[in-house]
Protein 1
Amino acid sequence: MGDRPIIRVQHVVKAFGKVTAVNDVTFDVWAGEIFAFLGPNGAGKTTTIKMLTTLLRPTTGSLELDGLDPATDQTEVRKRFGVVFQDPSLDSDLTAWENMDIHGVLYHVPRQTRRERSETLLRMFELWERRDDLVKTFSGGMKRRLEIARGLLHTPKVLFLDEPTLGLDPQSRNQMWTHVRNLNQAERVTVFLTTHYMDEADRVADRIAVIDHGRIVAMGSSGELKQHTGTDSLEAAFLALTGTTIRDESATAADQLRQVSRVWRR
Amino acid sequence: MSVVYILWLREVKKYLRSRVQIVASLGSPLMYLGVLGFGLGPVFQRAGEGKYLQFMAPGVIGMTVLFTAMFSGIAMLWDRQFGFLKETLVAPVPRLLIMIGRTLGGATVAVLQGTLIFVVTLIAGFRPVSLLAVPLAFLVIGLIAVIFSALATAIGSSLKEMQGFQMVMNFLVMPTFFLSGAIYPLEGLPRVLGALTRVDPLTYGVDGVRGLLTGRTHFGVAVDVAVLLGVGVVFVVFGAWRFSKIEA
């Protein structure tokens, strides 16, 4: 763990009309740690990530990333993080290498560095042999790995992973977390992830914030959460904290699109 | 500059790789050219207007450019949720550069597609009056492409759901095509229809291309180009503004 917060969120509220997606959330993330947001769909995890990644502005409250405000200092903040969204953001009609290369140009990574780092990262995520294949021929796990590799190309200080294992089979999920752990060690990058799988938060995160209905209901290491609630598994702790198990929320427009895309693509 | 270039290159590369799509998108222009061109040809000739193919070929080229450009904008809706667009929205570069790269790429693809149809019309028997005018005609085609790519970007940035797609096709793209004078002469139209054709930017595009390729023009090529430039500036500014407002 580092000695200063790289992310500082204070009393943040985000309302969409009458719906309050994030309701007075306060937390710090320390440089170098793996921090997990654990909660059901619709709890406010993605909204928080969108605010930190400059895509949304908070209704009230303040956010800081590396001492900068994502709402007002967009360009500088964007240089400092990499992000893997819940939905794919690769260009599947281009090759893995081309996807990396475009990212490098967008982030003004000098050509030589771009090439060297692309190679290092593609090797690290076991995609080097497939670098000249079109992304649409990749499996779900490979696509996710490529997205993470791409997000790291400009050596960000923070890597956001929004539900990175959604839709992956257990083996790919396992492999994914091994990769995340390794890169956290090798690159000294702070990882901010969201998940609704409790076993994953338990296994990979240094600290976990349990979020439900837009509020943080508990925060600490997996051990602390269990101790705090007097339970022996994170699942039981979650139940004790929220009074519910992970549940499904009503579908939004994006969920419906997502549904269509799954039917079309598989 | 490198940002604009790489995004432009991306669109062009994707186009050149999608052979099936290229062939598939030739379908409707070919249908118009074949069925209307040869079906209405005899009537057109009897009315003393000359060869219909000669008249409508520029219209079909304009239509191809319109359709291709508009589709690239609709694809953006998809791209925003499940594609590459989101990657560009969090990149540390001004949205304006991203919009320009995308729009120029979309416009280039539309011009390439228009070129293909131009070749097809030549094979079908279309004859430009002067070869020297062909490059000039392509400048006008380029203007049409930029106008509708920018409009498509504006629409793609504003729509929230796929259902909007059908609406855009029915209430914007098809009327733009049918009101453009692509398939009928603008002379002697009923007043309302005549007025509608004059607010359709494609009308000036088709008229300009037709003027340069066949010598037959309603407004005069200079007027056409002036209108297209004016509309182009407005649409690009509008598209850039809408694009800057996207919240992912």
Protein 2
Amino acid sequence: MYKVKVYVTLRESVLDPQGTAVKQSLHTMNYQEVQDVRIGKYMELNVEKTDRNIEEVVNELCTRLLANPVIEDYRYEIEECVAQ
Amino acid sequence: MKFAVIVFPGSNCDVDMYHAIKDELGEEVEYVWHDANNLDEFDGILLPGGFSYGDYLRSGAIARFSNVMKEVVKAADAGKPVLGVCNGFQILLESGLLPGAMRRNDSLQFICRTVDLVVENNCTMFTNSLDQGDVIRIPIAHGEGNYYCDDATLQQLRANNQIVFTYKNNPNGSVSDIAGIVNEKGNVLGMMPHPERAVDELLGSADGLKLFQAMVRNWREAHVVNA
């Protein structure tokens, strides 16, 4: 079994209006040191082992559904865990 | 001409769409549930607005994998007219039938009002009863209508004359003021504004009806002898 953590954010080239609003709010609170805020999604998946390579599977489901490659980037962490 | 209004869990403009076709346009129309696996009997496909699957993950992302979308792709490939409005447009983008993606409105607000749309391309089966440069009044109602595509895609859209409608006053931050685009073949139109909500002067505008009338007239000319 694998525990997969997927992070999806808007691509660098795409303006993130939510992130901009949060950054402005932080500046209003006097945290001028905050340079940039990007808001994204975090997903946790439990994936069973198959004969397919786990990275290949994760990349496939990220590009097909979890992220929209037109506007979003994704990264992931895969952790193998022992079945209880 | 027989229309299908595709209904997903969370669609909420399906009844307006049905009313526009049946009562205002006077054509045949049926609701088709998202798990349908045959659209052969329909001449035109309508994807209505709403919040399919609660907009979970991204607008249209889950609807795009529903059973009926395979049939919608098939209908599009066969050259049948496919019109996606609002959430319907978002589903067409997610499914890859149209290029680009939707972002949150730049104001982060849900915008619900009637806007001026400029007709950029009047050579489509949806708009050839209008003139290029015409300004039509159609309501918008969306929180994620901020159209995005990269520069290369935008050049392509321009080169192929795929930009059908632009906003006269951009309400949401859309790239190049884009409100509606067609595919290269010209039979799949996606637009954020709601033509089905502008089908009677009582509603403030009947400009939307012209799109549906054009679809019917073009279909008749192609399919009915002595039309």
Protein 3
Amino acid sequence: MSLIGDLINFDNPSVWNDFGGTSGGFLGVVWQMAIWSILVAILVCGWMIYNLIYYRHTEGDPDHEDALKVGVFPHERGDAKIEIAWTIAPLILVSWLTFSSLAPLDYLWDVDGQEEDLTIEVEAGQWYWQFGTPVCSEKGNENSWCVDGLYQQPLSFDKCKSNIDCLELPHGAVVHFRLTSKDVLHSFNFPEIGIKQDVVPNLETLAWLDTDKVEAGQYSIWCAEYCGDEHSKMDADVYITEVQ
Amino acid sequence: MNKKILSLGFLVAILLAVTAFPTGNSLPTGIEDPNMVANGCTCHTTGPMSSDVVINLTTLPENYNVSQVYTFTLRISGGTEPTEDANQGGFFISANYGTLESTDNTTQIPEGKTHLTHNEFGNNFREWSFNWTAPESDSKVAVFTVYGNSVNGNAGGTDGASGDYWNKAEFKVAGVNAKNVAEKEEMSVPQKMVYAFTVLFLTLCTVVVGNRMVVNDQSFEDVMKDYWDAVYPWLTTTDHKYIGTLYICTGFGFFFIGGILGLLIRLQLFESDNDFLTYEEYNSTFTMHGTTMIFMAAMPIIFGFANYLIPLQIGARDLAFPRLNALSYWLLPTGGIVIYMGYFTGGAGDVGWTGYTPYASNDAGLTGPTSPGTDFWVAGQIMLGASSTLTAINFLTTMLRMRAPGMALMRMPLFSWSIFVTVFLLLLSIPVFTVALILLMADRTFGTLYFDVNAGGDPILWQHLFWYFGHPEVYIVILPAFGVLSEIISTFSRRPIFGYTSMVYAMATIGIISFIVYGHHMFTSGADPLFRFIVMLTTMLVAVPTGIKIFNWLATMTGGSIVLKTPMVFALGTIITFTIGGITGIILAAIPVDIALHDGYFVVAHFHYVLVGGTVFSFIAGVYYWFPKMTGKIMNEKLGLLHFATTFISFNAAFYPMHNVGIEGMPRRYATYDSEFTELNEFISIAAFLFGFAQLIFIYNVIYSYKNGKDAGNNPWDGWSFEWATSSPPPHNSFIEIPTLKVAEEEK
């Protein structure tokens, strides 16, 4: 039954494992979401099953004293304390979940806080990704692939024949992507890693990736914002390669 | 006299409005094309683009093969007369796929660029040859954008560009396997379906009419007259019960059509790289599926029940404006037909139900423009928007002015309360969408520039306008479902609802919060980060009133005396599926998690759990619950339970695995997918078909019970509200005598 296996074991986006060191593990936002989801679902289903077992109507049961009568607004039924309790409990729960997503959010959004090694201009259009030549920053100069502030593609990089729909990056670099669109909305999305940023015409948006946090290998970029006929084929290959 | 002045005033106002349209067919920065400049060609752009210049790109293959090298010849003519031995012309060509290559000393590729242009020597020609190497994939469409400049040779001086004319042209070559651009001589699949169903329908009509003619020995005219007599009251009615029935039937009819579109989507996704539908057809299919289900199925079903039940529940004879009500209804099938007309214009709307601009506004120069039917999609939706606005006004007036004696606001049945909150949301949100659609229509049809990015339009303005409406819309669809559940659970637990007051406040709170959460649809857009952060907080808050409602339902059952009839079973199933949909909603509200899940199948799973598992299930429960009131017959219990079991199991089998493929990264609106998702997608498709077939049991049950059902009596389930006080079906004026609401506390 590999189908059931598929339902239980699945690959989650790698950035979830540990948002750059913030809130991983069972206290991290992803596990907290999973745990509380299951608990709430068990609570609702369990309570419903309990009701169905203990409060079933059988033929000949006497009517309760506040049973419904047609044309009569029923008795008020309720308990202020209980109702306040289940107003406050969800409030505390969502406050906690919000709190636990703050650190990962800060990690994902704080582009400027991650000093970059390389900056790459990415232009999206119907239906291609065009990557500019990487630009070295001051920090990037410490690496072997930056010589005098200019990016020198390592000799071992041979995966890409053109700069369209293909990009090869050195492992162990913080890369900033400056995203612009030539025509309509697109979305710059690494499905395996869990990074997504819309690409908007007339507006430069930013995404960033720490290639040190992912394994070397082949990754995909899929356009995630509907952009027309060939939306589903607007993909690019990204190779993250170790530089010797 | 007054009327004349008024209409004259309107005319003047409209004329003023027309002149105020920001029309234009050129870019505000002049004729300098920013794309062209960005690509490195800046010469001779001072003159206007001229259609006198003819650009020819010859020796293009019909379809290209992988990595093959082709030699093209570019020729420009017209414009100015060439001068011998002087500069005669220039060009610029870029290809979106493959690589261009210079083969002689007249052309060059500027350093660091991919486009090809003339060099100084090449200036003296009007014809150039060069090579193009096809890309590695033969499923793409290579688009060549060419600018040609016809030069008169008066180079030098400040006036060198005078008398020069330029033009732009585009040429396309498809790969041998790019099916979707191959000439479409065959009909598209949805078109075939429409024709097939039309033929089927006409055949059935012929058989039925023929049968009548033979069996009853009637002439064709007599049979038609009989039918006309039967149909006429439905066409001319202003009775809320008739209009309600029409709404419900139209809604379920469109639910059937939208369901077929959904199954077409699942057929396409049965395997990766499927060619059942072309990409363009697939895009139309999911657009029409979404639009149909939200605007033509869910909302009409809700308004149908509201139409039928609100006057009965609050003790009124009809709605406040019966004729307006009829207008609201008839705008619905009209709008629906207009939207579906798109299929006969070369492809129905393909912009997604969200219709994001600048794609939807079809800015000039898009490589892949929208399909022509999108104009119909916009026009039809404007009609549906008008219909909903009128309905909202009608209900608001009715519920505020026409309640029976004793029916205070805080004594209205919870279904009435849910509709009351809903119509407030409608009134505040639908007009915004309608206005946005009118602007979009102006952009598409009259050449205005509201959403034109090149003219400085805000690229995400549409998203704000759409979701300002779109999120309350979700609550417009789910709140009435809460109302139905409250009625059913209280009735079948044979006790009053637990916490009536907190239920009302919870619904009102959801209504208010719904207007300040819409930005959670834009977590990955370029909107202000502070805005996105705040809506994350408000979105989390929605869980609180929703939680109150779920707990109150469960508490109603505790201490009750639960009768497990079909309506109750469906209501309980709804609680489970809706709870799952609610939980995934909270997961999606957390931005760091949503960034990965946004626009993926997890979102698809979430909103199907809410909209099908919440709205559709509870209104199916509503049909089982109120069918006895509407027809006087009780629906078959065995068929009902069978319907529930098949529906509930196949629904979860179809939509639960979508969470998994979503987490693994499958994006929504994809006509194909990575082969790693194949197994789960096949399972989903099979389950979706079972879900579709399970609904046939429902249709059969409705028809069967309408003919053979047991007599219901006035109050088959022992409910308390006024609709159970009148006869089943209710008399023409709803109540023989308007009842007075009594209160249980004062009874004894």
